[in-house]
Each structure stands twice: as C-alpha cells, then as structure tokens.
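Hi all, long-time lurker, first post. I run a small reading group and we've been trying to get comfortable going from sequence to structure in the token notation. Rather than ask abstract questions, I figured I'd post a concrete chain and ask someone more experienced to write out its structure so we can walk through it together at our next meeting. Sequence below, copied exactly:
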Amino acid sequence: MISDAFDGVAAVDMKSGRFLEMDSKATSLLSVQPRQVSGTAPRDVFDEAACAHLDREGSMIAAGEIDRASFETTVRRHGHPDRQVLVRMSASGGDPPALLLIIDDRTAQHLMLTERARLDMAVGSATDAIIIVDSSHSFLYANSAFRHLTGYAAFECVGFRPEILRGLIPDEEPWATMANGEPWKGLTRGQGKGGREIKAIVSISPIPEPDSDEISFVIVLHDVTRMQAAIEQLDSERSSLDRLATLMESLRDDASPEELGLAVCNAALILPGSVAALVLDLTVPDEASVLAISPRTGFEQLGRYLSAPERVEQLLAGQQPGPWVNEGLLRAARADGADFVRKDAQMLLMVPFRHAEGLVGLLIVLGTEETRDHVRSVEALAISIGTVLTPGLLTRGGVRAIRRDITDVLAHRRFRPRFQPIIDLADMGTVGWEATTRFDDEREPGERFAEAVSIGMAADFETATTRAAITEAALNDTKGWLSLNVTPAFLASGDRLLGLLPGPGDGRRVVLELSTMPAVDENLRSILDRLPAHVKLAVDSTTGEMHTLHGIVDLRPAYIKLPKTIVRGIEKDRVRQALVAGLEYFARSTGSGLIAVGVETEEELGALLTLKVGYAQGNYLGAPGFFPIAAGGPRP
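-- Answer (accepted) --
Happy to help. Here is the structure in token form:
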C-alpha cells in the first residue's frame, strides 16, 4: 500500500548499512538491479551529504529521538540518467529494526526547486515567514523566519507534516480555496510549536507544477505586529540586495577580503541617510585595521579615528549579537573636532561579522537618523556577504598577528643565541660550536621560523638570529669552528649572508649548515664560488633520497651530519650501524667529516666510536648553552 502511494520505497538495515528491500519502482529510480539490492549500500547510490543525513538523522530516528526527517539528493549511476529525489526517513518495525525510506522523484521539479533556492537567498533574512507546499500540503520549503514565527525548524517540516500547516491555518475557507487551485489572502489565528499563538496575515499563491497537473502553493505569513515596518523597508531591502548582487557578480571568484569589504561598503551607501561606510578588521586582539572604506576621499580620517588603539575599547563598549548604534563615539569625535563629522551625521551603525570564536569584524555606517530605520537592511547586507568575507578576515588577521609578533621579537631582541659543542671523538676535545636560537617565550625555534616564512619575513628572521650568534661568538677566543644553520634561500641571498660572516682575520672557521638540500643551479654555484676559504658547508643526510645524495655529490660539503633519528638506539640496531658504516666510508673517501647529532647515552657514543665516526654532538656530550666567554669579556 505504501509502495502504491509513492515513487519508490526502500528499507535500510542500520546495523549493516545495506538495503534490506526495495520495491520495483525504487530499483528503477535508483538504478539498482533487483538481484543486487541486498548487496547495495546507500553510499553506492547517494552522495556523501545524503549519507551524512542517513547516518545522523537515521540514527536519531532509530534511537527514538525524532520520528522522521528528510533530505534531497541527486542519484548519479553510471550509464543511467541523473535523478533528483526527495527521501523521507521514518522508523520501520520488525527485527532487526530498519529505516524506512519513502522516495519521491523530483527530477521534473528540479528546475523549479533551483529557482526556489535562489528565492531562499533573497528572502532568507526577511521578517516574514515564507513556505512552499505541494498539492498534498506537504512542505517543500521553509525560510528561517518561519522558525522564528512558528518554532518549527525546516527539517521538522520539509517532506511531510501537513498537519503543521493545518494548525497554522485552522479556518476552512483558505483550505477550500486551495482545493480549487485559487489564491487566498486573509487574517488567521493559529498555533505553532508547543501551542505558540500566532496571529498573521496569510497570503496563498498557487504555482502550477511544470509538465504536471499538480499545483504547489507559496504561503507568506506576515506577522501583524511587524507588518508595517516590513512594508516600509521592502523597497530599500530589495535595492540593497540587488545592489549587492550586482557588485558580487562583478567580483572575481578569487576576490580578496579588501574587494569583498569594499563591495559591502558600496552596497550600504544606497541606504537612505548613509554618508560613509567602512569595514574594520578586529581579528587581532586589541587592534583594529581598516579593511575597506567608501567613499575614500574625505573619509580617510574616519578610518584612522575608529582604528586607533584608544578607540577600540570605546568601539566595542556597546557590543551586541546583532546591529547596534554607537552615538557616544560620534559625539566624542565631534568634540575632538574631527573633519569627517558632517552636521547631518548623527549616528554610527555597527553591524558585526561573527565567527564561532567571536567577533571578527564590523561593518560601520556613518549616517543620519533616517539610517536608523534601515538597520535590518544593513544587517541583511552583512549576513549576505559575511560567510564569504569572514574566512578571509580570519586569514588576514592571522597574518597580521604573526607579523606583529615577529616584528616585536626582532625589534626588542626577545631571543638569545645558544651554542652546543661539537666533539672530536678521536680525543674527545671540542672542535666546534653549533649556534641555535632560544626565544624568551620558550616557543620552539622551528615554529617561529615557519611563521616567519609564511609571512615573507624569513630573510629578516635569519639575518637577526645569525648576526646575534656571530656577535656573541666574536666576544671570546674559545677555539673551534662556528656552525651556523642557514636555509638554501638565505644562502642564495648572496651578499646579505656573506656580509654577516666574520672575515678570515677573525681566526675562526665558519661552517654553514644547510637545513635542507638545495638544488644546485647556476646562481647557487656562483655564490658557493664566492665563499671565502675559511667558510665551509655541512649538509644533512636525513632523507637518504636520491636528490639528497646527488646534492652531497654536487656540493662536496666539508661535513655530513647524521641526524638523531639514525643515532637514536644505534647500539641495538644493525641496520643503522650498516648505514653509518657506509656513510663513514663515503665521508672518509671524499675528505668529509661525519658528525653524529643527538647523542644522548653512553651506549650510543660507544657504538659511534666503534664505527669510527669522526665527530658527535648531543646532550650527553654537552647541552646548548652560552658560548664560553673569555675572562673579563662582556656579554650582550
């Protein structure tokens, strides 16, 4: 009987996640061979979003938390035409319990539903509740205002529940009119969720279904208490949304946050009484920056005034979840004699852009009292563009925060060089010192450097830390070479790095330890040829990949470093020992020194001695610390 009433019926076993049964219409609609039903899973038929609904709402139905739910999806099967279907889910009795899927073929209605989706974008923030029902009065669509008015969420209605509509419109006259396929308008007193009393003017408009005798209906419920305000704002809201749509269409797909911010500012300026508009980026704590402003000419001071550090606290003093008016800040600006305060400017309208973690930006409109009557229009603009703009604001704010932090670290030298001894295993004497950097806030050096790279400050960062290490090493006459970690990009900068290095007259050999293996091109080769005789190279043998081995051959480094991942536990690992033995032979044959890194135990040291590794460093041999200073020498 159920099969006769719908376009297809299927049952899903929630435990195995496979279909139990399908009627013949469902197998045709979903392009499943009847003999393959039990071997087919919903994931073979529906897309990921649809399967997510099955997993989520289906589990809730099985648990008895809700009694039904629905979703819409496109069925795409190889060699078969696409089908747009509406799937309604409810519990099915039996052992084991199953999820009953009632499937309606919506392919013929897809174009109309696409248009309704566009309608949702236009009216989603309207104060009037708008719904669409089919000829059987089952819900096809409900906007967000419908939930505010009635208490029913869209997922509780769409696909079924005509009794909800009967509760909202209890009078018989509109139902008789709908039965005749005719429009109706009038006042109704009904009930929403939980018995909520609703008084609204209802407008019912029939819509013939394409290629069908069926008729759907668009039903608008105007809350009587807000009706007058909605009518007065209709024209301005339509103009605002049309202007925003035009501006958005003109933007590139990869429009920057600045371009998006300017679009919303320009759209806000069509509101009656608007004088100027700007978007403030508030993603960095205790800091505001102007993302966009319009018109720019004559209002640059407005941006500087509102983004000044002393204004941020005032700016947010009256912060609310939705739009709010800040008159006090405008009075203060007038008292300060700010040029941007025109005589007719009477208020600052603040509309927030929010994220899960809080406020990320503000759309601010400088306007007259007339602007106050269009708060909802400005909010509609912000909502329409906020979902697109907010990710860009967060990214931009993250870059600004990192730049501010690194600039502060470099400007106030919130770091110190530390030096780890490099030991000659032949006589256990110190022959070199590897310079590292430690930060006052104890952040990992690798994290700091990665942040500097992400905002294009890597060269400044390396210059400052390298200069600090060279300066401190120069304060004493402790024997041993100075090993400096450098990136291939910093080495390729040429004079920037070479200008920092101590000259041969300083009496100390310098080893440039490359953090990664570079590609040896013509530019790098010319720089290597310019290195003074007292400056040598060290490379890391970490990866063992071919480009690393080729790099060692091309660069002919003075030292090859064994990473701690190889040294760790080497005394118990024959494979590591064999690898090190091969590298020791290679280094000895090519005149390079082999340096083991990260020696932590006596056993590891013993294994390295047995393998005739030339040099080693690690906490067991000496942890990073201050460079030993000559007697009487100062420390910066």
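A couple of things your group might point at:
The two ends are 90 Å apart (CA to CA).
Residues 543-547, 630-636 have pLDDT under 50 and may be disordered.
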